[in-house]
Amino acid sequence: MVEDETQNVMQKEDEYLERYGFKTKDDYETVIKGLSEETIRQLSRSKNEPDWMLEKRLLGYRIFKEKPVPEWGPDLSGIDYDDIYYYLKPNAKKSDSWDNVPKDIRDTFDKLGIPESERKFFAGAEAQFDSEVVYHHVKEELEKLGVIFTDMDNAVKEHPEIVKKYFGNIIPPSDNKYAALNTAVWSGGSFIYVPKGVRLSMPLQAYFRINAEKAGQFERTLIIADEGSEVVYIEGCTAPIYISSSLHAAVVELVAHKNAHIRYVTVQNWSKNVYNLVTQRAYVYENGNVEWIDANIGSKVNMKYPSVFLKEEGARGEILSIAVAGEKQTQDSGGKAYHLAPNTTSQIISKSVSKGSGVASYRGLIHIDKKAYNSKSSVKCDALLLDRDAKTNTYPYNEIYANDAFVSHEATVGRLAEDDLFYMMSRGLKEDDAIATAVLGFIEPLVKVLPLEYSLELKRLIKLDTTNSIA
Q: Residue 24: inside a domain, yes or no?
């Protein structure tokens, strides 16, 4: 019996490594290691950036040095900032033709299914390999509608007025230590502008891959949905498995203008050696709507709290979060909603699964300003423990300054009961399949809102990550 379980675990690990943990041969044109002012200047020179962006970078670097490492969350003492590659430019020119991408990089993304999924149902896609976007393609009909979908490096040069208006204004470098770090060393990421009244019926996609050991990836994403427009953006993230740690510190800024709708979907499957420290924020204006759909499976430490600033009347925000904390993993996630105007609405739904020694924590904030009368907010946190040593925490924080606001919070914690497993196994399911069925049923309300391919992939990942867990 024990031998069979060991073989099952090894088989699942092999399946995971074959799909996600493989490594691609390193071939880089530019390599910048360590963090200093000269590092920042060298990075900016290599990108041939305008002076105004260099000044933003240097400001971010100064703030990063001054701000302390956060002490209120997971342990971040294992990050050695001097032993990280801050810029790794692959020896490949960006292309809009998949056939022109170097074969080893193309094979990497082919294994992950990116070009295939793009051909099936995405309106546009880009792929980032370490620090640079190596592939970008937008369908002609989008360009005819005036939609801009490009990488951030290109946007700085071709759309400077839009970038200057929004870059760092939604998330300033002073916001936190890792937003400052991203401002200093950002590279790659997506820039999207959807014109007034344009509603995209197909999603846009980006995929981020950390390939090198001790690498940092610091993409910067900015999405602006003009009045009455609509866009769905989906990103996926992976990295091979190394002994030493890597760092991913992204910044995502969203702007939903009057009556606009943005849905931002993340399926994060970083390997277990990655510190994933991401800052995400949306400004939502009159009757606008922003949805964050956030699935966190991998990483050593994950700290991510998508937020919505509901700035004008009728604005809405939703944060749907799934976190799976496996052995020696810390998933610290949640969301924040700031109600700054009347008749605004927010909803946060968090589902977490912990196994082995994994720790999953919900950390959230609801702020309702005194001007935000008749505002409504609801928070629901559900946690499932698969093992005796697994842990879950909930840290809700409410700041309510309006007398007529409606705010609700509920949280549940449960273990996967042996009786439930016995019932499913008595119906012919193997133990692994019974565990996976219970977990997938637990997270189903969130998974069903994903596009089909991502829904299937997320279910597959969770099944790989949560079986053989009952103690």
A: yes
Counting the structural domains of the chain, the total is: 1
Flag whether 471 is in a domain.
no
In the numeric block, which tokens belong to residue 320? 């749907």
Pairwise CA distance, residues 393 & 397, whole Å: 13
CA distances from 305 to 167, 193, 252, 442, 445 (A): 19, 24, 11, 21, 20
3 state DSSP class of 311: coil
DSSP state of 70: P
Q: Look up residue 220 and give its amino acid.
A: R
Report how far residue 206's alpha carbon sits from residue 306's, in angstroms, rounded to the nearest whole number: 18
Helix ranges (H only) for 20-113 are 37-46, 51-66, 103-112
Cβ-contact 281, 170 below 8 angstroms: yes
Distance CA 79, CA 295 (A): 24
* pLDDT score recorded for residue 428: 76
In this prediction, residue 444 has a pLDDT band, given cuts at 50, 70 and 90, of confident
> Containing domain of residue 322, as a range?
2-466
In this predicted model, what pLDDT tens digit does every residue of 367-389 receive, in sequence order? 999 999 999 999 999 999 988 89
CA-to-CA distance for 216 and 247, rounded, in angstroms?
Answer: 5
